[in-house]
Amino acid sequence: MNDGGAKSELLLQVTEINGRGRSLVAAQPLRGGQVILRESPLLLYSAFPFLSSPPPPYCDHCFRLLSQSSQRCQSCSLVSFCSPNCISFHTPWLCESLRRLHQSSFAEQSPERQVQARFLLSAYNLAAASPSDFQILLSLQGNGDSTSDSGFLHSLLSAVCPPLPVPISPELTAALLAKDKVNGFGLMEPFSVTSEKRSVRAYGIYPKTSFMNHDCLPNACRFDYVDSGGSDGNTDIIIRMIHDVPQGREVCMSYFPVNMNYSSRQERLLEDYGFRCECDRCKVEASWSEDENEDMEEMDGEDDEEEEEMEEEGEGEGCGDGVDDDDSSFPHSYFFARYMCEKENCFGTLAPLPPKGHDASRLLECNVCGSVKEDEVGGNP
User: Fold this and answer.
1) Which residue, 277, 375, 377, is CA-closest to 318?
2) Checking DSSP bridges between strand 237-241 and strand 350-352, what pairing results, if any?
3) Which of 207, 231, 235, 210 is nearest to 223 (CA)?
4) How far is residue 354 from each of residues 61, 198, 240, 317, 347, measured CA to CA in Å?
5) C-alpha to C-alpha distance for 309 and 329, rounded to whole angstroms
6) Does the pLDDT at position 313 exceed 50?
7) Which of 158-167, 185-194, 288-297, 349-358 has the least mean pLDDT?
């Protein structure tokens, strides 16, 4: 973890919240646009199956888009890198494991199993290369329902891959897969206005960020700049406040685009993370009809008169703020109008640029397409 993680200790504290587990709360008042956490991944692994065709156009270490000067591994010939520095992280054990898996029948397994195997190879490699980081991985919470393939994968990898200098048991493999299910963050492919859905290029484990709970109207959002210039830190996750919050309030982000309707959100959370959301927004939308929920996905803000009314009433802070459960209309149109990107097929969340000194920024940046617009409303919701 880089210095951003150390600085976050002053801004956030880990607290056990009844019904929500380990959570991050504001250790002091936080400002809109403030960077509250910057964290490097504990490990990264490709989201592509082993025999993807065409091969992934990304460096197998930093996952930037490859250029014409990229270099392919001369030993296994299965992965490419953008620089000699990235190649140096491709250990002999990992290289030989990929080569043997490629020659086995494992490529006939489902894409999901192949990606799980990629995670296990990265985790095993971490155990050998950095035992202290491996212990951090094991300390994370896990979902015990996600280990149905652990026995098969353990047996296969044990039989095919070269021996590791550290012992790996079936129980440890099951525990690792349980951690990956609920602690992995996807690094997405570049945004394109012509595509309605972006795919994941790589997954990463970010221990401190994984403490951050979900809320369907978040007060913080994550940014990443995978294809940015520079040689270090391009796979860091940066958490930035969407608006001001007081000391002691839980800091939450949304695990998916905020425009998803109630039923889709609940299904996604239950399937991927093993829980149902009971945030203030969900409590309201649970009583809506199916048509009202479908309309919500197409909603991108109300008219100016309603925006002014919402601002006067002070609604829309999300993540632990109360709303009127008897209100049959959407109670957070202010949030959608101000903080949801309007670019076609984007569905990103807007957050102010980091403040300079005491002055809050008037510019909002989208965490998906990267576009910047002037904040036409101003103030806090």
Assistant:
1) 277
2) unpaired
3) 235
4) 29, 26, 8, 19, 21
5) 14
6) no
7) 288-297
**SS3 category, 236:** coil
In this structure, are residues 316 and 330 in contact, taking their beta carbons and an 8 Å threshold?
Answer: no
Tell me the C-alpha to C-alpha distance, in Å, between residue 269 and each of 182, 183, 255, 331, 348: 10, 13, 8, 22, 19
Q: Tokens 């790589």 map to which residue?
A: 202
Q: Give the number of C-alpha atoms closer than 13 A to the C-alpha of residue 31, restricted to the C-beta side.
A: 14
Q: Which candidate, 108, 101, 98, 106, places its Cα nearest to that of 77?
A: 98
Token reading at 222: 């994550």
d(CA 237, CA 37): 8
Residue with tokens 């079936």: 170
pLDDT in tens, 220-278: 999 999 988 665 789 999 999 999 999 999 999 999 999 899 999 999 999 888 889 99
Nearest Cα neighbor of 173 from 156, 198, 195, 188 is: 156
- Mean pLDDT for all residues in the chain: 84
DSSP 32-60: TT-EEEEE--SEEEESS-TT-SSPPSB-T
Helical ranges in 30-140 per DSSP H: 84-87, 92-103, 111-129, 131-139
Q: What is the pTM of this model?
A: 0.85
Q: How many whole angstroms separate alpha carbon 362 and alpha carbon 357?
A: 13
313 DSSP 8-state letter = H
Amino acid letter at 247? Q
In this predicted structure, the answer to whether residue 307 has a pLDDT above a threshold of 80 is: no
- Residue that the structure tokens 């030993």 belong to: 75
Using the structure block, give the residue that is written with the tokens 């309309």.
295
Q: In degrees, to the nearest 5, what angle opens at C-alpha 75 toward C-alphas 71 and 76?
A: 90
